[in-house]
Specification:
Number of helices: 11
Largest sheet: 5 strands, parallel
Number of domains: 3
CATH class of the largest domain: Alpha Beta
Order of helices and strands: EHEHEHEHEHEHEHEEHEHHH
Radius of gyration: 23 Å
CATH topology of the largest domain: Cobalt-precorrin-4 Transmethylase, domain 1
Number of strands: 10
Structural class: alpha/beta
CATH superfamily of the largest domain: Tetrapyrrole methylase, N-terminal domain
CATH architecture of the largest domain: 3-Layer(aba) Sandwich
Shape: elongated
Length: 270
């Protein structure tokens, strides 16, 4: 098997049994493991009797670690990068480091393994393979709404925290009462569950359940998205006849079964 200077190694997102044999082999064979939280990684290493030295590498020190990591590799040391869970560089530190390594002609490879997005999507039925992954949602409502609007064109997948999920779902339901969503939590763990329903029904469900664990969610693209071009043409025709925004939204909703609020927003240019 070809040897590399630097390995990107996925770790389990919940169930420790999901680690691959190659991941264990690499983590045992390298000289140093760069990790986000040494306490979290050490539990994993102890479980598999891996005694490799760890060095902290997180978003607050990633730039200052570049020089020392390069020096270690140039001195002949082999290194691996792990995150607390899942695949590094997916909403986790590593991009800055990998870019620098490649600039310095360091041989880098990534192992296949656990990833929350892939685990989630593999059990969520979709009409097409196309989706947009946006990582963690931004903090402001306007930024979140900008992302939610994209769900009319494609399925939008994102990470969310338990304490923010309900607010996010409420924004989705407010923007589009007919929106369909999928929410997965505690993936690969004992209390794993994936809920697929309207945004409002998912809100009602979680109001009676304690929200814990890592969450991956998806907003399904609008069922009527294939009519967008025709819809815009019809809006322009009705505008030319001096119909007002509310009248246009009422007419097109009645004729074509599209959401009246969606049409109204389109008419006024939101």
């Amino acid at each position: 098997m070809k040897e590399y200077d630097f390995y990107i190694v996925p770790t389990p997102i919940g169930n420790l049994g999901d680690i691959t044999l190659r991941a264990i082999e690499v983590l045992k064979s390298v000289d140093i493991i760069a990790c986000e939280d040494m306490r979290v990684t050490q539990k994993l290493l102890n479980h598999f009797d891996i005694r490799t030295k760890c060095i902290s590498y997180h978003k607050f020190n990633e730039k200052e670690r570049l020089k020392s990591f390069l020096e270690l590799i140039k001195s002949g040391k082999k290194m691996a990068l792990v995150s607390d869970a899942g695949t590094p560089l997916f909403c986790d530190p590593g991009a800055v480091l990998v870019e620098e390594l490649k600039k310095n002609n360091v041989s880098v490879t990534a192992l296949a393994g656990a990833n929350a997005v892939v685990t989630f999507l593999s059990q969520v039925p979709r009409e097409s393979e196309e989706f947009t992954f946006v990582g963690f949602l931004p903090k402001t409502k306007s930024q979140i709404l900008d992302i939610i609007k994209k769900s009319s064109k494609t399925d939008v997948v994102f990470y969310e925290s338990p304490n923010r999920l309900m607010n996010t779902l409420e924004m989705i339901a407010e923007f589009n009462p007919d929106a369909k969503v999928a929410v997965g939590r505690e993936l690969t763990k004992v209390f794993e569950e994936v809920i697929i329903d309207s945004a409002q029904n998912v809100i009602d469900y979680f109001q009676d359940n304690v929200l814990k664990g890592e969450i991956v969610a998806m907003i399904y693209k609008s069922i009527n998205s294939i009519q967008d071009t025709d819809l815009d043409e019809k809006i322009e025709i009705l505008k030319s006849k001096n119909f007002k925004a509310k009248e246009i939204s009422t007419i097109l909703s009645a004729l074509y079964g599209v959401n009246k609020n969606d049409v109204y927003r389109r008419v006024i240019g939101e």
